């Protein structure tokens, strides 16, 4: 099973909060590079990243992620799909 990052939704959330990806990284306690790589589809969002993102935002899993099956790909809906 993989996890699909709802990149467009996460970027909208950052805009709504007036946060940059660097602000998000600081709130999560991870490097900016980690956030950048996940948002660009160059890195899979592991369990630690997912937990820290949800803790930093106070949101539920479904807000920024979608479970699915399949190989890594980027869809037209702005989601990045990854497979664990």
TrEMBL record:
One Pfam family in the UniProt entry: HTH_3
A GO MF term: DNA binding
SMART domains given in the database record: HTH_XRE
Origin superkingdom: Bacteria
Signal peptide as annotated in the record: none
UniProt xrefs under Gene3D superfamilies: lambda repressor-like DNA-binding domains
Segments forming domain HTH cro/C1-type: 16-64
Protein name: Transcriptional regulator, XRE family
Organism: Alicyclobacillus acidocaldarius subsp. acidocaldarius (strain ATCC 27009 / DSM 446 / BCRC 14685 / JCM 5260 / KCTC 1825 / NBRC 15652 / NCIMB 11725 / NRRL B-14509 / 104-IA) (Bacillus acidocaldarius)
Lineage of producing organism: Bacteria, Bacillati, Bacillota, Bacilli, Bacillales
């Amino acid at each position: 099973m993989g996890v699909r990052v709802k990149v467009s939704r996460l970027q909208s959330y950052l805009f709504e909060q007036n946060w940059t990806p660097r602000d998000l990284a600081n709130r999560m306690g991870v490097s900016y590079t980690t956030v950048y790589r996940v948002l660009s589809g160059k890195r899979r969002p592991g369990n630690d990243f997912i937990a820290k993102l949800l803790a930093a935002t106070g949101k539920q899993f479904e807000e920024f992620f979608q479970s699915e099956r399949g190989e890594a790909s980027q869809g037209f809906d702005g989601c990045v799909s990854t497979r664990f």
